[in-house]
Write the structure tokens for this entry.
Amino acid sequence: MSATGAASKPARPIARLAYHSTVTCAAQASVYGKCITASYLDVSKDMCSAEFAKFKACLRESMKKRQ
Amino acid sequence: MPLSLRHQLRSLASRVPSRNYAAVSSSPSQTNPYTVGPYQVFDRNAKRLQRDRAVARDGGDRSRTVDYIRDEIAERMMERFMDIKRSFNTVLDLGSGPGHFSKLLESDKAKKTVMLEMSGKTLHREPDSEFEGTSSGIQRVSNLNGQDIVQVERIQGDEENLLQHIERESQEAVLSCLSLHWVNDLPGVLVQIRESLKPDGLFLGAMFGGDTLFELRTSLQLAEAEREGGLSPHVSPMTDTRDISNLLGRAGFTLLTVDTDEVKVGYPSMWELMEDLQDMGESNAVIGRRARISPDTLAAASAIYKELHGNEDGSIPATFQVIYMIGWKPADSQPKPLERGSGKVNLKEVL
């Protein structure tokens, strides 16, 4: 993602990430969130990495597409 | 040469991404975490720049859109101010911002307000015409016989060094609406406020504290712990409600009144909340904060926020807890408790 490209695009990358993480990939986000919430009193690194990997795969796929 | 330099600067500027969620570190030399005293928590220089930038965005429109929380708290603070049966010639609005509180002042309560604010752009965001009937500052007021007009004076200065801008024993009332939560040395500033007051002078303040933004704090903490295996400060440490009356007492105020209030605001998602906080100039300014937060962690935090704290309708709440404090500078005219053992009535007979 080159800086000049990001500047000329109408939506900033962060806005697109916001959109995709809450709308496009809402289902995967919810699965990941539930995994954390299930044991949020004892969180360790990569505790929900499988769920996050799916969430991230969805994000990566939708960030590729131009809206 | 100037032309080519400008060209270079512009090409440099175009390479900078249009926004950052995490604030750019801009610590001046005195905010080195290893050489400062125990009270150095916030990067005041970064905070001033954040406020300047927030007001500069879209010619101040973005900043005006996110006035909702400060305007609401200013109104609630005004209710407390109106409960004080006294009118003032001059009040000092400490950390005034663009004047959320001063705008509400009426001339029968205060004839003049002095706004002191660290960020120059924030201080001058609103023209004088926005304030109760004022046309153009001090000169014009005398032409209009100055009866129903609140005069406005603006001083750009750091509220941490209050006594550099305001003389000792010079103020009838010091009011502070939502600025003290960025002050490093709160006990010291309270002492300076008391020093700047005349005897029997009033201090009325409102500040964020307690559970403010605990949802955002916990979501970011959980996301960071699970994704990266560590923690870093993203939400300021908040003053506990219970500490405020102790601090006021320690600073030498009497007749204290402290109460708290909670405002819950709903947002579509964590992203809108963070954008609004940035437009308010309330981005993270804790010393030692990370300059950048990874998109992974942000996405994770957004998912956690929604699952852990989200409302049933899919929106997310953000809590703002406000601590209101009233204190008076001691004076002989104030009512005082009687001497111990001087009671004449035997309570046994009364009860």
